[in-house]
Amino acid sequence: MKIHQLNTEEALASLHSRLDGLNQAEVIGRLHEYGLNQVDEVQTESLLLRFIKEFTHFFALILWLAAGLAFFAEYRQPGGGMDTLGYAVLGVILINGLFSFWQQYRAEHAINALQKLLPHYVKVVRNGKLEQILVAQLVPGDVVLLQEGDNVPADCRLLEAFTLRVNNATVTGESLPQARDALRSSEENLEHSRNTLLAGTSIVSGEGKAVVFATGMHTEFGKIAHLTQTAVKGSSPLQTEIIRLSRIIAGLSIALGLAFFFIGHSMGLSFWDNFIFAIGIIVANVPEGLLPTVTLALAMATQRMAKRQALIRHLPSVETLGAVTVICTDKTGTLTENRMAVSSLYLDGQLTTPTQIQRQPELAHLHRRFFEDALLCHNLKETVNEGKWQALGDPMEIALVRMAKNCLGENISYPKINEVPFDTDRKRLSTIHQTPHGIMLYCKGALEMLLPLCQQVQTSTGIIPLTAELKQAYLHSQEEMASQGLRVLAFAWRKLSEGHNSESQEQDLILSGLVGLEDPFRPEVPEAMRLCRAAGIKVIMVTGDHPHTALAIGRQIGQIQSEHPVVITGDQLRKLSEIQLRLALDAPDIIFARVGADQKMRIVAALKKKKQIVAVTGDGVNDAPALKLADIGIAMGIAGTDVAKEAADMILLDDNFASIIAAIEEGRAVYANIRKFLAYILTSNIPEILPYLVFALLKIPLPLTIIQILAVDLGTDMLPALGLGVEKPEADSMNKPPRSRQERLLDWPLLLRAYLFLGVLEAIVLMAAYFFVLHTGGWQWGEQLASQSPLYLQATTACFSAIIITQIVNVFLCKSPKRSLFSAALFDNPIILWGIALEITLVGLIDYTRWGNTLFGTHPLAAEVWLFILPFALGMLLLEELRKWLAAKVNA
User: Fold this and answer.
1) Which residues belong to the active site?
2) Of 16, 62, 654, 809, which cross-links 309 as Cys (Cβ 3.0–4.6 Å)?
3) Looking at domain 287-303+673-733+745-891, which of 3.50.20.20, 3.50.50.60, 1.20.1110.10, 3.10.20.310 is its CATH number?
């Protein structure tokens, strides 16, 4: 039998322990065998290995290859400028790797956070003596003493308990403090047994003596830690797409290189000339600025999200948010405020609220005994700090006292002269007070336990007999409150004589009323649920709380809308096969209640197998494993434990569920924006490749130099591309379902638009400008030009400047890939405007300053060259508008 199913003597015997504790020799032996009472750290990758990985992922390997080929080309043909390209690519690899590593450096040290939740010292009985020892020195069999305010240091089986209540929220997710006793339990699950205390929980009220039966990694707390440490998070959708994009670019670059190699071979070029030509094509086709632009765009998105109270811990999570299809949310502290409040009263045969009582003080006077009961019948430790009332103890009792104070409009303090403590059999608490009216007994507890003890009932007109009809009315009201997710308590009282019999003092009670307590939902949650439905995002409640409470909250916030939702408890979940669980998850409305940490992970894993992008919210230790396994884990910043925060990808700084929706909207915008600047960056590849092609095939001077290509890719294009990366979300972005898993970051329509339409248009403008300058300068076909001749420098400058001008037009075309440019807000993005200003400034410095001419091989252009280029740029805009119009006609 399990330890919680044994009586106290059997439990001690099973651990070879005694009430007077272990002796020193036993402690030493068990420390050696079971180890220290602490959570062990799982071996993780070294910082060095993680650092190296930032420079060896697939796209980085493509850049390494490009740099190597550039250096090899320079070695074979010195003076071609390929070494400059090689060094520039190495710089890109270094900067991006260092930046990404720094962003990821705040790795998850959930182990440290777990340790903080455990107390440092504990009172223990050893060899008949009371000692205070470090928590790490506890061993199985130790007898510990615990009282109100203590954290539980290990998994313990109670030996004695006096009005003991424990807060299990951080481990099991239960919102209400749970009563505990030392009686044998028939419960199958350890975490729900009434005689066990779990490591990491806290004592709310009362005191007790317990024997330790599990320490360190053997505790339920340790098992959660192990799940958190060993949960493996897969690649984010963006990371998967970047890998796919890298392979496409690598394949396309190599294919183009090979194609041009054979073209050159057919034209009679020498092997090495042909080989160097192919290398130039390959390197020119690799968008060196893509990876740093993506990284910087994600980093800037994290800053925007922080302003919307969402702190992103891992860069790829920004985009993952936009792909979320399912949110698995905890209830306590996430959908609710994690505090008890009285929301409903049943007095004199009518349901009312504390607010209504406060508006009618005469009602409080008529039911004074009821409010005195709520005010006095408790085990709180009350203090007044700077004129403010404060209390330590059960949150439920704090809520009752606060409600009674507000309704009575005064504070009553009658000396407590005795108490009949709460226990699991009685399910009630009675306190006896000396009052001006004599000795009064006030009682509160479960209605089914108080009704048999009551003979009369309090009404506004006086005390009347408790008839069968009145009993039925009370039971009906209790069911009505419970159906709303409220915890219902009954109140009763009686006046005692001076020589009353303690055995019969709880007889002949006068029933005074019912109280319904709730953990209120956050007021912004219903609107957030509505937005989730509009955005095609399914919300599943996964909680450790009671199924009735969870269902009631689900209906109140709008998560549950169907008449017959699916509610699955932890016990039912254990009996479901993998296929049955995945079929159950197809239900439109579903709630999981009374589930453990491993079961949350199982739910997340099942959803991921169904190809869902899963976000999980939570704040407790029990949520951490699921937070880590999910595509994106979302922890509460205020109420969340350190463990949950360390395991999460995103932290809600205001604990506002609605902030998730704002973050998802930003995430959707990020994906759309990456596609925008991807089209923008890839467009310039064609005008950068074409000069090499005409140089080799037509035997003309090279129209565009390596250093000028770098000036475009790593200079002028960067800020406008970043501007596209921070475009505001589309107005209707949250009225669309999440994008399909089949939708690709780089698809054929985007490639065709960038390479075969916009890229070709830019290449035409570039070559037209190049030949215009040569022709007006008197150049004849086949004539060779010196690399420093003014005419050649002017021609390459025209070529370079034409790319800049067309890219300025292109940034507006990519800003609105589907809508007409004339219907879009053109000047609402300051970064794009600053980027254009920078492009114009740079092209001016490169074209018209001595250092720019020297460094980039340029020469000042005459005004007529600009006048020649600008109409082409305008034509490019008009042709793109025509394409959008035709596409809209076809799709209409």
Assistant:
1) 330
2) 654
3) 1.20.1110.10
CB 271 within 8 A of CB 74: no
SS (H, E, C) 343-376: EEEEECCEEECHHHHHHCHHHHHHCHHHHHHHHH
Each residue's pLDDT tens digit, 196-210: 999 888 887 788 999
> How many CB atoms sit inside 10 A of residue 374's CB?
27
Handedness of CA 551, 556, 560, 564 (dihedral sign): positive
Q: Report how far residue 621's alpha carbon sits from residue 110's, in angstroms, rounded to the nearest whole number.
A: 10
List the structure tokens of 333.
Answer: 């502290």
**Total length of the chain:** 892
Q: Does an H or E element contain 885, and which? A: helix 863-891
What are 836-843's contacts with CB under 8 Å, separation 24+?
836/720, 836/808, 836/811, 838/716, 838/719, 839/716, 839/719, 839/720, 839/804, 839/807, 839/808, 840/808, 842/711, 842/715, 842/716, 842/804, 843/716, 843/800, 843/801, 843/804
- Of 108, 98, 107, 118, the C-alpha closest to 51 is 98
The C-alpha atoms of residue 730 and residue 741 are separated, in whole angstroms, by 20
- What is the spatial distance between Cα 883 and Cα 576, in angstroms, rounded to a whole number? 54
**Measured between alpha carbons, how far is residue 821 from residues 425, 710, 752, 837 in Å?**
75, 29, 20, 20
User: Which tokens in the block code for residue 183?
Assistant: 């009686």
Separation of alpha carbons 553 and 175, rounded Å: 13
Sign of dihedral through CA atoms 391, 392, 393, 399?
positive
Residue 107 has pLDDT above 50, yes or no: no
Q: What is the CATH number of domain 3-41+112-230?
A: 2.70.150.10
pTM of the model: 0.68
Q: What is the DSSP letter of 544?
A: S
Burial call 610-625: b when 16+ CB within 10 Å, e when fewer: eebbbbbbbbbbbbbb
Least confident of 279-288, 455-464, 814-823: 279-288
| Residue 168 to residue 544: CA distance in whole angstroms | 10
Task: Write down the pLDDT at residue 106.
Answer: 46
Could you confirm whether domain 310-337+522-655 is CATH 3.40.1440.10? no
